[in-house]
Amino acid sequence: LSTWSAVPAGPPDPILGVTEAFKADKDSRKINLGVGAYRDEHGKPYVLSSVKKAEESLTAAQPDKEYLPITGLPGFTQNAAKLAYGAESKPLVENSIAVTQSISGTGALRIGGAFLGRFYPHAKAIYLPVPSWGNHTPIFRDSGLENAPEKSIVLLHACAHNPTGVDPTQEQWREISDILKEKKLFPFFDMAYQGFASGSTSRDAFAVRHFVSEGHQIALSQSFAKNMGLYGERVGAFSLTTVDPEEKARVDSQLKIVIRPMYSNPPVHGARIANTILSSPELYAQWESEVKGMADRIISMREKLYDTLVGLQTPGQWGHIKSQIGMFSFTGLTQPQTKALADKAHIYMTADGRISMAGLNSSNIEYFAESVSKAVK
Ligand code: PLP
């Protein structure tokens, strides 16, 4: 008998499973709108020019491959914090942000979950949005956090909410901040799309910066997967604002103790790329314009999709396609409709009707709109 004979087969990942189905489809019209990865106008993965230039300068410098410290590349984490909190942020200026490099956004959430699971002094419970990114539930369940009574932790999508593409307005963020304060809830921001929502990295950081300026202590997960296109490089950061440098040092020491047995220390290459961009004014400016370019292409696809659906007299309201922001659109397509689109039109999306807008381009958007129109008629 095999040692593993009692291991039950698990279900496929709801998002990555869509890509498997797409890959197996041989039809030339097939479209993958499942995974949240940017595609260019030709439907191809996109490596930013700022990233290519940063890599060229790294190749020329021939850095060694030594281990990073447990909390990562120091220049990178400082620059990541500056990008999120803003250069004038009080805790940043006062050196009271405990920050560590992470294995992209997922790893940041997982470190945050583990740290809060160990040290959060109130109920170890977390409220997640409904709906939310599919991986939030397993991440926090595996971190030992439960469903939530008062004084709980609240997970907030900082911008470009996944899957709905619907963000609070600045006025609503102010209200949310007041309510969290009143109820003494603890905000844990997941910022996986800084720059992707509006095209501006500082505008997309509004919620994080507002909460900090209002005196909230926050936890923050950052990912450079989408805004730098560094998906597989796994570049991210996790940070906590503390009250002073002495408290920060204590928190830092415990972050190291959380991380060391998980993966020892983070990968170096992607962090060097991100840090090269964040610390060079020239590359930074180019990167910001490339982020805006990606956001703008997505916005133009929203307009085109809306116009085409309405032009085809597709039943229903489609205004949300234009008002939603970020990588995704929550179309409102039902599960049978998404299944019909996969089976009959070779178009793949998650079962909740979420589409990655970045998967659309001028060559496939009409076929997509026509297929959706047929599916709902
Ligand atoms: N959080 C949200 C809301 C996301 O949509 C994603 C990616 O899809 C992530 C976090 C983490 O992604 P990664 O681990 O690739 O940075």
Automatic annotation (TrEMBL):
Q: Which GO terms describe its cellular component?
A: mitochondrion
Alphabetized PANTHER family for the sequence: ASPARTATE AMINOTRANSFERASE (PTHR11879), ASPARTATE AMINOTRANSFERASE, MITOCHONDRIAL (PTHR11879:SF22)
- What EC number is given for this enzyme? 2.6.1.1
* Pfam families found in the cross-reference section: Aminotran_1_2 (PF00155)
The organism's place on the tree of life at top rank:
Eukaryota
Cofactor requirements of the protein: pyridoxal 5'-phosphate
Q: From which organism does this entry originate?
A: Phellinidium pouzarii
User: Any miscellaneous information on file?
Assistant: In eukaryotes there are cytoplasmic, mitochondrial and chloroplastic isozymes.
Identify the keywords attached in UniProt to this record, alphabetized.
Aminotransferase, Pyridoxal phosphate, Transferase
Q: Which reaction does it catalyse?
A: L-aspartate + 2-oxoglutarate = oxaloacetate + L-glutamate
Q: Could you tell me one molecular function GO term of this UniProt entry?
A: L-aspartate:2-oxoglutarate aminotransferase activity
Q: Which GO terms describe its biological process?
A: L-aspartate catabolic process
- Entry's Gene3D superfamilies? Aspartate Aminotransferase, domain 1 (3.90.1150.10), Type I PLP-dependent aspartate aminotransferase-like (Major domain) (3.40.640.10)
**What name does this protein carry?**
Aspartate aminotransferase
